[in-house]
Amino acid sequence: MTHEPVVSHEAEAGDEFETRLKVYEGQRAAVARLGKDPVNAPMIRHWCEAMGDSNPAYSGPDAIAPPTMLQAWTMSGLSGHTRGTHAYDELLGLLDEAGYTSVVATDCEQEYLRPLRPGDEITYDSVIESVSERKTTKLGTGYFVTTRMDIRVGPDLAGTHRFRILKYAPIRRAGREQPSQPDRRQKPARPRPVVSRDNAGFWKGVEQHRLLIQRCIGCGTLRHPWLPGCNACGGLDWDTVEASGEGTVYSYVVMHHPPFPAFDPPYAVGLIELAEGVRMLGNVLGVPYDKVRIGLPVRLEFQACDEELVLPFWRAHGAHEMREAGA
């Protein structure tokens, strides 16, 4: 006598859903799109100023674009692109309908094959490279979606940009994992930062309410974000200094759209220039979002977003009284 294996309806439904997702692998997300602007010196200058990168290769008559700007030349801006396929939107919509409504970027990989120079006009194709099986992470249960973008100048491949996101149903605040059918009424937890071997020390310091900046032992240059090597001298040896917590708003944006379940727009995100000279991103608190200005003095403040997550924020000077008054 033989016994047929018992397969639950839930497992069958899960297998069927993953089969539907796998159909999108290999489909084009963009076809022969043209970059909205040629590679140009002003954008290179703005990028270098924001990054604090004074490499002479990025200026002058023989300038090249910083390789890490590769994706910047493909960005669509607020008006978007009108040409291409809808496969990627369909895939994300399918995940949304199933309750995997939150998203976090997990990592990207870039390969540089030739330098980009002012005047180059780029075109690019994008393909949905893979959709993972259902995964359980600290954020929640969901699927990793990887796209690959091929950037060209004329017929020449200039580089590739591989980008991976996690579409997930967040873990409930009580600490229990979501059921197989996520509860869409549950407000998701704030996304967790992606911690790697390169930046683990930074996040360990944040847990201890210390803002640590990398310092090159060879030349003394401070750097942020954390990197395995010095961008000034190439040295691999480093230690850290603790930031004083004083800074000013170097630049900022006010987020209105798109809405994200863990946040309540509008809110201001600032590029903060620390007293030590490096810059980092963070929410600006203590003043209304429409009162944030370049040059606004701010002071570091750590906040526990939940039982597991501590993040650095930046509060405008003199705003403590506003907070106490309920403003």
Give an overview of the whole structure:
By secondary structure, this protein is α+β, with helices and mostly antiparallel strands. The chain folds into 3 domains: 9-170, Hotdog Thioesterase (Thiol Ester Dehydrase, Chain A, Roll); 196-242, no CATH class; 245-327, OB fold (Dihydrolipoamide Acetyltransferase, E2P) (Beta Barrel), CATH 2.40.50. The chain has 5 helices and 14 strands. The chain has helices at residues 9-22, 41-51, 87-97, 200-207, 320-324, and strands at residues 28-34, 102-112, 122-131, 135-136, 140-153, 156-170, 212-216, 222-223, 238-242, 246-255, 267-274, 279-285, 297-304, 310-316. Strands 1, 2, 3, 4, 5 and 6 form a 6-stranded antiparallel β-sheet that branches. A hairpin with a 4-residue loop joins β11 (267-274) and β12. The longest helix is centred in the N-terminal third of the chain and has 14 residues, at 9-22. The chain is globular, with a radius of gyration of 23 Å. It starts with 8 loop residues before the first helix and ends with a helix.
